[in-house]
Specification:
CATH class of the largest domain: Alpha Beta
Helix content: 40-55%
Number of strands: 12
CATH topology of the largest domain: Aspartate Aminotransferase, domain 2
Number of helices: 12
Shape: globular
CATH superfamily of the largest domain: Type I PLP-dependent aspartate aminotransferase-like (Major domain)
Order of helices and strands: EHHHEHEHEHEHEEEHEEHEHHEH
Distance between the termini: 34 Å
Bound molecules: pyridoxal-5'-phosphate
Radius of gyration: 21 Å
Low-confidence stretches: 332-336
Length: 393
């Protein structure tokens, strides 16, 4: 590998580097404090003490009790457990008859595929709420969609692909009024926005440590006390029976350290990054013909810029930028390699010839002004080149 080559990372929504203080906090839990937190002896008790502390700190950071926090294997798993857990509990309570699920067409696959599986394999009715051109749900549509047999509503806090923030607090208030459990996928939020379960009026919430400068493979599921829930993974009584499986203590400690770190850095970084993001957005829209911002112009993550370019293949653009040493994404990291336009962009009403040219540039705690200027320097030429190649076909 050529180590002198410039490399600029602008894909912080895909993942973030582990902060040094997080790495240091986790270090003792690989080989020194290695006990199984379920073991009764002193080795187990040492691990259990660290795990208890992680529950308390992570809970406190989002306004929850320690007992309402469940560590999982990733954000995807937290979303899966939330939807299935509530749906299965409702089905049990209703003598086996499946109910109705409400979500949106702009959710991450973790929610989207789970809701679809509950529909196709388990017989739940599914309503996908409409979204506007910015990807936002109208809370009144949630009010209208709720039925007597609705078992759960799931609307994400911040969209991974276009950065749009949903009116989660308002939607949560409606769900509470109607007595329907409300889940939000908050995976993209905590490094850049405050997340508080009471302010958001949510009953279930999913996080993922690697999105806020913690380790990969650690998720957090918040379940408000009293929420009907049946564990979709079966096994032992770990995490109070809500997520069976020996708990990754080092990972939980990592999530704890990462949430402390990002809570400390968040406000200053959000203000700094919003300025850099706006400089980037203005520069791209001014410098690249046939370019549009995707997602909401103001109600969006402070670190998130996303665009669509007419008659440009997004993947080719990503690769052209990669050759320049700049790492970005076409949208969700999980859909890379798929030449079809993003369903999220299509649901927002973006025409196919624009939706094929989606690009996501996400900033993080290490992003500098020079890096943004480097993107602005090379992007117009990259788009022109890729567009010329696309039009040849
Ligand atoms: N939800 C959203 C909004 C995400 O952006 C992601 C990851 O990209 C996930 C869920 C899945 O999280 P994980 O990678 O921890 O499974």
């Amino acid at each position: 590998m050529d180590t002198t080559r410039r490399r600029i990372y602008l894909d912080y929504s895909a993942t973030t580097p582990v902060a040094p203080e997080v790495r240091a906090a986790m270090q003792p839990y690989w080989s020194d404090v290695f006990g199984n937190a379920s073991s009764l002896h002193s080795f187990g008790r040492d691990a259990a003490a660290a795990l208890d502390e992680a529950h308390t700190v992570v809970g406190c950071a989002i306004g929850a009790r320690a007992s309402e926090i469940v560590f999982t294997g990733c954000g995807t798993e937290a979303d899966n457990l939330a939807l299935r857990g509530v749906a299965f509990a409702a089905r049990r309570a209703n003598g086996g008859s499946p109910g109705h699920i409400i979500t949106t067409p702009v959710e991450h696959h973790a929610v989207e595929a789970t809701a679809h599986q509950l529909h196709t394999l388990f017989g739940f009715d599914l309503t996908l709420l409409p979204v506007d051109g910015c990807g936002r749900v109208d809370p009144d549509d949630v009010r209208r969609a709720i039925r007597p047999d609705t078992v759960i509503v799931s609307v994400m806090l911040a969209n991974n692909e276009v950065g749009t923030l949903q009116p989660v607090r308002e939607i949560g208030a409606i769900c509470r009024e109607r007595g329907v459990p409300f889940h939000t996928d908050a995976v993209q939020a905590p490094a850049y926005l405050p997340v508080n379960v009471d302010e958001l009026n949510v009953d279930l919430l999913a996080l993922s440590a690697h999105k806020f400068y913690g380790p990969k493979g650690v998720g957090v599921l918040y379940i408000r006390e009293g929420t009907p829930y049946v564990p979709a993974i079966t096994g032992g009584g770990h995490e109070r029976g809500r997520r069976p499986g020996t708990v990754n203590v080092a990972g939980a400690v990592g999530a704890e350290a990462a949430i402390k770190y990002s809570a400390r850095e968040r406000d200053a970084q959000a203000a700094r990054l919003a300025k850099l993001r706006d400089r980037l957005i203005q520069g791209v829209l001014a410098g690249v013909p046939d370019a549009r911002l995707s997602g909401h112009p103001t109600e969006r993550l402070p670190n998130h810029a996303s665009f669509v370019f007419k008659n440009v293949d997004g993947e080719s653009l990503l690769m052209a930028l990669d050759v320049e040493g700049i790492a970005v994404s076409t949208g969700s990291a999980c859909t890379s390699g798929n030449p079809e336009p993003s369903p999220v962009l299509l649901a927002m009403g973006i025409p196919r010839e624009w939706a094929l040219g989606g690009l996501r540039i996400t900033l993080g705690y290490h992003t500098t002004e020079e890096e943004i200027d480097a993107v602005l320097d090379v992007l117009p030429e990259c788009v022109a080149r890729v567009r010329a190649a696309s039009l040849e076909f």
